[in-house]
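User: My instructor asked us to take a sequence, write out its structure as tokens, and then describe one feature of it. I'm not sure where to start. Here is the sequence I was given:
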Amino acid sequence: MISTEAIAKTPFFRGLPREQLELLAEIAIPRSYRRGEMIFTEGEEGKGFYLVLGGQVEIFKLSPEGKKQILHILGKGEPFGEVTVFAEVPFPAHAKAITRAEVAFFPKDSFIKLIKDYPHLPLNMLALLSQRLREFTSLIENLSLKEVSSRLATYLLYLSEREQGADEVTFEVPKGEVASLLGTIPETFSRALGRLVTLGLIESEGQRIRIRDREGLRNLAIFGKI
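Assistant: Let's start with the prediction itself. The structure tokens for your sequence are:
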């Protein structure tokens, strides 16, 4: 059984009364996935949604030719598959554990019953869906209009903002996965990373990146030049 405390610590359910957190914990089903194990596939019937309790999960699509495009890389406290709660649609993408992952599964029928009893319960969920839509729109713009260096600059600024403006950020997944998220291949990603270092915008050491020129990075992200 998943503890109420584990549910309460996630941003998704932050601020809910203890009573509602306990009800959520009662319907949550713990599940574990090995690294590389599929959680669901695109087109599969959505019978509920998931919440990451530990590890990392990637959401991705495959083109007819088999090319992979990562849409999201999710960590502790982040939900996925939640669109199926509000619409009678199958899962619109694939989900896979990229490390060993511990998740909570919330069955759709049980969760909808809670919403009927507590109508304000899904407000955080709706806010997150709006945020995901903005991120997806930004992703499409990046892939369509920006060169790889600008995409990388945008992603580094996103990681920094997620950490309250920190100058040092860390790629939480292998660089090959980051390359896929940015819609490119590892070799091109490495060249883009090297360019940002040469321009004096960042310092790079393994998975750690230190931002040296935030304004220049922002100009590259927005205008394609510094």
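For the description part of your assignment, you could build on this observation: The mean pLDDT is 87. Try explaining in your own words what that tells you about the chain.
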